[in-house]
Write the structure tokens for this entry.
Amino acid sequence: MLSRPPRISALLLAFLVPLAVACTTTTDPTATTDDQGTGLTPALVIRPREFVGDVPCSAAPGAMRSYTATLIDHLTSEDPATGEPLEQTFTFPTSLPVSCGQGVRFDDGVAGHFYSVQIEGYEDFATDIGPDGWVRKDGTVNFTKLRSGSRHMVNRDGQPVSPRWVTSCGEGDNEPTLAAASGTTLIRGCDLLTDIGEIGTTAVEIDPIDALGATACVGDGAPGQTEIATFDVQSQDGLGNTVGLPCTEGLPALKYTGAALTPGRELHFYVAAHGKDEGPVALGATCSAEVKEGLTVRAACLPLSDAGALELDFAKVLNANGYACGADFATYDATITLGDKTVLFTSVACDVPKVFSPLQATTYAIDAKVVAKDGKQLFAAHCEGSVQPGRTTVVTGCIQE
């Protein structure tokens, strides 16, 4: 438990407060308690990991994107009239808005003083908000206003912006942080962020442009580069399909909302790309996203590809025919046939699904069998599967032979 600083006279307090006014703030995401500092005056650092908790820090709509920090000096003096302890506080100018992934460093503190910090978190990017008057009418930044130290933020249009999250360090039941004589002191004793705003929309968005990879939209490709005309987006979770989306930069992403988007659920999509309008599917890719409450999460997409894969869960095939994976059925041999070409895979473990890739988009036959050590065939099945570009197809409908 930290102890409060010793009592000081009102005269000494009047001397120290002007020193505190000189305190400046900088963003310092890498500062640690091992920093050497100036060696003359102490510095204090607050890091987001001390207070963020489960609040997401990302560029996704609804997530915390920035915050401001306000340092408060807790001073203890003696009441000249009664001789009783008298605690006073001095509030420093508020820091500039910083990214939720960055720390804030307060320079030129006073050694032996106790400090707390008040945090206000915003859904806005740090570059889009600032103190009143920070953006001039011509759109340029007024750096004098930007560094005014006001804790009231406005956007680029001058409209007030309220924080969505608030918290503090060294207040309430938490002890303030004692500034060391030199170096950098890490501010601790933080409560986790409290959400004081409305929860945002829970949504997932997908933009097939994210899957272009080495390809390009029609008219934008270099000589010899594969070009895409349209996309189809298929939801693998029953959220609906969209066909004929033009391959054009700047179109709004597809957005999915509704009761089916329960937090923690992972959604999967298949993007089919056409080289010509209404032409056959030339390339494909899969995209996925985990639903986050109150956030709009963008699906991550693999690059478009003309090859796909087949997945065979041989344990399920055995179970469907009255056998079980294990003992004599621990491994199997599989042959993939396309026309007059065959590829043999031996001693495939049956306890995990086997993925055969890369395969060109067409229909394949898979013959799987279990052979005992003496060469006797114990089980055989015939399966077929159609490969789609950029997608893994699960083989079903295997028939025992």
